[in-house]
Design a protein that fits this description.
With 239 residues, the protein is of the alpha/beta class. The protein has a single domain, classed as Spore Coat Polysaccharide Biosynthesis Protein SpsA, Chain A. It has six helices and 14 strands. The strands form three sheets. Strands 1, 4, 5, 6, 8, 9, 10, 11, 12 and 13 form a ten-stranded mixed sheet that branches. It has a two-stranded antiparallel sheet with strand order 2-3. A two-stranded antiparallel sheet has the order 7-14. A hairpin with a 5-residue loop joins strand 10 and strand 11. Helix 3 packs across helix 5. The longest helix is centred in the first third of the chain and has 13 residues. The two termini are 28 Å apart.
Length: 239
């Protein structure tokens, strides 16, 4: 099975930690964030992986080559000239995928989420995409109905709200986990450009079923801040 690991981020929230290295190469107990993401995907059968590179692109490519020497299958999508965000980056890499559902995974996510269960849920419900979500603090939330179907988005800090379709009542706020399963059909609704997949999902949600998969148990960390990075290191060290 195939996966894309988004690894082109600037890592600005990490401050001095990413002054000389990209976020994908931050050390997490002796392994880079990229290596941990590759290991996670491969463990669940997503063993053909493409990564995108932009910030310190050469360093990330060197790490990809090192991981290839360890036996992992990794292709690189080059975004050196312009960072395309998740949507644009995925569309640029569309040649890599086949006719089967594929995994999208943010390189800065550390979690024990069962990706096999996520894939099984996606196949059972036959939606265009399935987004892993979690009940956790934050400012930006998806809005879902009682069946976990996406209907909107809300920014608690700014008050901005986007509703897709006619359903506006009885929606629940839930935070995105940066992990999704997507059908290749999605490429027919995309075009070249710089845009986020969140924006695309919200555009498509009024006419297509986009499901969410809850995983409130276990651990989940976005290691994009020094505080969260230290928490993830401590949790992994204890296991």
């Amino acid at each position: 099975m195939k996966a894309m690991i988004f690894s082109a981020g600037l890592g600005k929230r990490l401050g001095k930690i990413t002054e000389n290295i990209p976020k994908a190469l931050i050390d997490i107990n002796g392994k880079t964030a990229l290596q941990r993401a590759v290991e996670k995907c491969t463990l669940h059968g997503f063993n053909e992986i493409i990564i995108n590179v932009h910030h310190f692109a050469g360093m990330v490519e060197n790490e990809a080559e090192r991981l290839r020497q360890l036996g992992y299958t990794i292709t690189v999508s080059d975004e050196r000239n312009i960072l395309l965000e998740t949507g644009g980056g995925l569309f640029k890499a569309r040649y890599f995928f086949d006719q089967n559902p594929f995994l999208l995974y943010n390189t800065d996510i550390i979690t024990d989420l069962d990706l096999t269960a996520l894939l099984g849920f996606h196949k059972k419900n036959r939606g265009l995409a399935t987004l892993a979500v979690r009940n956790r603090p934050g400012n930006r939330f998806f809005l879902v109905d009682g069946k976990g179907v996406l209907h909107g988005w809300y920014n608690k800090a700014t008050g901005e709200q986007i509703i897709s379709g006619r359903l506006t009542e009885g929606l629940t706020e839930i935070a995105f986990s940066g992990i999704h399963i997507v059908n290749p059909e999605i490429f027919s609704y995309m075009e070249e450009g710089i845009f986020s997949l969140t924006k695309l999902y919200l555009q498509l949600a009024s006419d297509h079923k986009i499901f969410t998969f809850r995983h409130d148990g276990g651990y989940w960390y976005d290691v994009g801040t020094p505080e969260s990075l230290e928490k993830a290191r401590k949790v992994l060290k204890s296991r």
